[in-house]
Design brief:
heterodimer, A: 11 helices, B: mainly alpha, 4 helices, disordered C terminus
């Protein structure tokens, strides 16, 4: 590696540690949130440096973008009184010392495990690449996510589904007085929303042979949806169509799993002849569901009137 | 051969100029006293700085497709950047106007928004 690249990596690592520390230690929660978002963007850059553009895309869109928007929205709902942290957020208390000790122990265990591995361990990459022709896609990351380890991805989609169910059930958000929507925000929306749809669809399609996929495409769609909600508050009620669309991604994935278990070689073992089409089907439905879930998490539940109508 | 060298030199000069704009914008963001002058410094870095860097990179582009993508990136950032600048400035001015309405309740609700925009 060249000197410049090493220098860049060193600066990146130092900045990440410093920003992480600042985000934790800042007494001003607004500053902490902004530092967390910058931390996410730099982390995406670190993933690029590590040769993992798929994770970099997801980190930039979900970790920095959507999580940042959710945190800012939370701060606005907390109001002036709730947004102030205690003066010294990192002052050592017995509970914090305990957590810190547990974390240090975990780090020590991880380090010991990594050091105990043989130095020339080949890893699973050769096997993943060898099975690629039968996986239905040519991007090893997508093949891993939706074929070799489809079970993990199914459960991940289940987790985001549970999150939105929680938001809809809680129904305890203080309503924010919305300022009158700015006409310029509408202009931004008119240009950015079609772009987010086109780019999201592109990422979904390109995921079969290059970095991209359902989660990345969904994050872009959701970004457009969040902007929409800011320009003109969306009334995303838990109506039957909305609930069906939110559940569809998980349901289709599960249906494919059950079909392969009953008719084929086993739960989520995709038949090589149809693997490509099945992966595209699962990803397309999952993308719409995940995007809707993310927007629903941001928009919260539509206020219900006394007689229960939305 | 000398044509390629000239192209590289021009690229370097353009990217260097862009980096200078970004540096000036960052210093302005850190040193200028109030929100509007900071935005002023920042948008120059966004528009002209990125424009210079994109122009410099366009000279190194391999094909027309790459060229087009660079132009699209620049246009998109210029569009979104100027609108974001307007939105930040607009919300700051609105918050100030609400604070000037001088009723204690209005000051209490506008204060967090105003202090937030100052950062």
């Amino acid at each position: 590696m060249s000197v410049e690249a090493t220098l860049l990596d060193a600066v990146l690592a130092a900045l990440l540690l410093w920003l992480g520390w600042r985000a934790l230690a800042s007494a001003d929660l607004y500053k902490a949130v902004v530092q967390f978002m910058v931390f996410g963007l730099l982390l995406a850059l670190a993933w690029v440096r590590l040769g993992a553009p798929d994770i970099a895309l997801a980190e930039a869109a979900i970790g920095a973008g959507l999580t940042g928007a959710l945190l800012l929205d939370t701060l606005a709902r907390l109001g002036a009184a709730g947004a102030a942290d205690e003066p010294h957020p990192l002052r050592l208390t017995p509970a914090r010392a305990g957590v810190a000790l547990a974390c240090l122990l975990l780090v020590a265990l991880l380090a010991a495990t990594v050091l105990a591995l043989p130095a020339d361990l080949p890893g699973l990459a050769p096997q993943a690449l060898a099975a690629l022709p039968a996986s239905g896609v040519s991007n090893p990351v997508t093949a891993t996510l939706l074929n070799y380890r489809a079970w993990d991805t199914l459960l991940e989609i289940g987790v985001v589904l549970l999150a939105v169910l929680g938001v809809w059930i809680l129904d305890a958000e203080p309503a924010l007085p919305r300022p009158a929507p700015d006409p310029m925000l509408g202009l931004l929306l008119r240009v950015v929303l079609p772009l987010s749809v086109v780019t999201g669809g592109y990422l979904l399609w390109v995921g079969s042979h290059a970095p991209g996929g359902a989660f990345q495409g969904a994050a872009l769609l959701a970004a457009g949806g969040v902007l929409w909600h800011l320009a003109q508050p969306l009334r995303l009620s838990a109506s039957l169509p909305a609930r069906a669309a939110v559940v569809a991604g998980f349901a289709v994935f599960l249906a494919v799993g059950i079909a392969t278990a009953v008719l084929g070689a086993g739960l989520l073992t995709l038949p090589p002849a149809h693997a490509g089409a099945l992966i595209l089907l699962i990803e397309a439905v999952a993308m719409v569901s995940i995007a809707l879930i993310m927007v629903a998490l941001f928009a919260g539940r539509a206020p219900t009137t006394v007689d229960g109508r939305q | 051969m000398s044509g390629v060298v000239w192209l590289d030199a021009l690229s370097l000069a353009l990217i260097g100029a862009g980096v200078l704009f970004f540096l000036a914008g960052s210093i302005g963001l850190l040193r200028l006293p109030d929100l509007l002058s900071r935005l002023h410094a920042l948008t120059k870095a966004d528009n002209v700085g990125l424009g210079c860097v994109v122009l410099g990179l366009m000279l190194q582009a391999g094909d027309a497709y790459e060229l087009l993508r660079l132009v699209l990136v620049w246009l998109l950032v210029m569009f979104a950047g100027s609108l974001a600048c307007y939105l930040v400035a607009h919300s700051a001015v609105t918050a100030e106007a609400t604070a000037d309405a001088a009723s204690p309740a209005a000051t209490a609700t506008a204060a967090p928004a105003a202090s937030r925009d100052e950062r």
